[in-house]
Amino acid sequence: MTERLLHVDSVTVRFGGLVALDNVSVDIARGTIHAVIGPNGAGKSTLLNVVTGLYRASEGDVTFEEESLSGRAPHLITRQGIARTFQNTELFGEMTALDNVVVALDSRYACNGISAALHDGRWRASEAEARGEARELLALVGLSEDQDSAAAALPFGKQRRLEIARALATQPKLLLLDEPAAGLRAAEIEALNRVLLDLRTNHGLTILVIDHVMALVMAISDRISVLNFGRKIAEGVPEEVRASPEVIEAYLGKKAAHAFSA
Amino acid sequence: MAGRALIVAIAVAAFFIAPHALAEFHLFQICLVAGTALVVLGLIVVTGFAGQISLAQAAFVALGGYGSAILAARWGIPLWAGVPIVSIGAFVVGFVLGQMTLRVSGHYLALVTLAVTAIVQIALIYSDNVTGGAAGMPVPAFEIFGLTLSTGGQLYYVIVPATAMLFLAVHHLNHSHYGRALAAIRQSETAAELMGLNVLRYKAAAFGASGFLGAFGGGLLAPLSTYLDPAQFGITQSVYFLAVAVVGGMMSPLGALVGSIVFVLLPDFLQAFQTYLGLVFALLLLGFIVLRPEGLAGLRLPKGIVAALPRLGGERR
Amino acid sequence: MLAQVLVSSITAGAVYALIALGFVLIYKGTGVVHFGYGDQVTFGAYLVLIAQALIGLPFWPAVVVALVASVLLGALIYGGLMWPLRNASLLAQIIASLAMGTVLREFVRAYMGPSAWPFPFLLSPAPISVFGILVVPANLAIVGVSLGVLALLFLLFERTFHGKAIMAACDNRIGASLIGVQVSMVFLAIWILSSVLATVAGVLVAPLLTLSPDMGLIGIKGFTAAVLGGFNSLPGAVIGGIVLGVLEALAGTYVSSALKDMISYGILIAVVLVRPQGLLGVLAMKKV
Question: Is the CB of residue B180 less than 8 Å away from at least one CB of chain A?
Answer without folding.
Answer: yes
